[in-house]
Amino acid sequence: DVVMTQSPLSLPVTLGQPASISCWSSQSLVHSDGSTYLNWFHQRPGQSPRRLIFKVSNRDSGVPDRFSGSGSGTDFTLKISRVEAEDVGIYYCMQGTHRPRTFGQGTKVEIK
Amino acid sequence: VQLVESGGGLVQPGGSLRLSCAASEFTFSSFWMNWVRQGPGKELVWVAFINTDGTTTTYADSVRGRFTITRDNARKTLYLQMNSLRAEDTAVYYCSRDGDGHFDHWGQGTPVTVSS
Hints:
Largest sheet of chain A: 7 strands, mixed
Radius of gyration of chain B: 13 Å
Number of strands of chain A: 11
Largest sheet of chain B: 7 strands, mixed
Distance between the termini of chain A: 36 Å
Oligomer: heterodimer
Order of helices and strands of chain B: EEEEEEEEEEE
Radius of gyration of chain A: 13 Å
Mean pLDDT of chain B: 97
Strand content of chain B: over 45%
Low-confidence stretches of chain B: none
Order of helices and strands of chain A: EEEEEEEEEEE
Structural class of chain B: mainly beta
Helix content of chain A: under 10%
Helix content of chain B: under 10%
């Protein structure tokens, strides 16, 4: 199985400041169809996950533009340009290129 | 898009449970569907996948042979039949749709506890 590794696992942030989460895969996530199936999800405490970003850098409908995704191959990044209080929770990267689909272990974002 | 899971609860080891996921506000029959679970304080784990007409299913190694994913497009409902349950199957189970890639919408989850 493809192992997804996130860093850091815990990220204390200051409101209004930027934040960045890294995600590495144990194999290239470039699919034979040319797409890279790397997604980012946000899970608030007690809630179900919500997809933020699909195929590396595409924001889902309703996702604020302070969220951005980038990367290629095996290295990916989620950035929040200015953290707001509602951004707390756990962020997961997930690959859908290889079967089975696998998630990272999660990065907990909290306000300092 | 609405996905509402039900059927979770407390079950003894070796027992069975059937989860349901009622879909609405979208054309259910046009989308692939999945079950994903999350153990207590743990990360998300994909469990099972089914294509639009139910002819193709895939499973995580940990549940293959014990769990069965099915769907009823007329009833707009996804199912997960879970047999021979083990303590390590304890988790919140989410149904999730594959749209614009993978897992674009999720239900609220239904908790399953396997314990004697």
